[in-house]
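Predict structure. Input: COMM domain-containing protein 3, 192 residues.
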Amino acid sequence: MELSESVMKGLQTLAEPNVFDLKSFTIFMDVAFDSLDSSRGESVLGHPELRHIDQTTLKHCHTAATTFILEGVKQNADKSTISSCLEDVRFQNERVDTFYNSFQKHKKSLESLLSSTDTCPPHITDAEWRLEYCIKNSHVHKVNQPSYLISLNTERAGASSEINFSCTMDQLQDLVGKMKDAAKSLERAAQS
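Output follows.
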C-alpha cells in the first residue's frame, strides 16, 4: 500500500511504546475502528484512558490509523500486506496482531460503508420545458421577456428526482452550447 508521509509518521508514533503502551494502544485501536464503524462512535480525544497522551498526537495518530484502515479495506488487504506495512513503521508483533484482529472484526461493515459512498452525480434521464412569457413584474413595470421553465428528471443509484429551474433565452442557449461541448469532449475521450 502506498501511504503519504504524514500517515507513515502517524503510524510510527502509534508504534512507539513510550507514547502508547499496549493498553493505550488497544483502547486507541478499538476507538479508531468504532469511530469509522459507527456514526456515534466515541472520539479518541474524549476517552478517559487516553487523556495522558498529547491531544495533537492523538489527532495525528487517529487520522493516520483511520486512513490506513480505510485504505486496507479499499484494497482488500490480506494479513501479509497489513503486517508488512505495519512492520515497516516499527510495529511490534503483538500490536500487529491487535490491529489485524480489529481489522478482521470490522472489515465487513467498513466494506459496506465504503460501497455506499457514492461520488457520481445524478444522470439526466428526461427533460421537459415550457415557455413562459412575462408581461409585467411585481412592480407593474412592463417586462415583455420570455423565459423557459426547465424540468430535468434525474436518477442516482435507482432513486429518481427532479431538478427545476428557470432561464432566459440567452442562458438556455449557453446551457445547450455547453452540453454540446461536453458531449464532443466525451466522444473524443472515448475514441482515445
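The longest helix spans residues 93-116.
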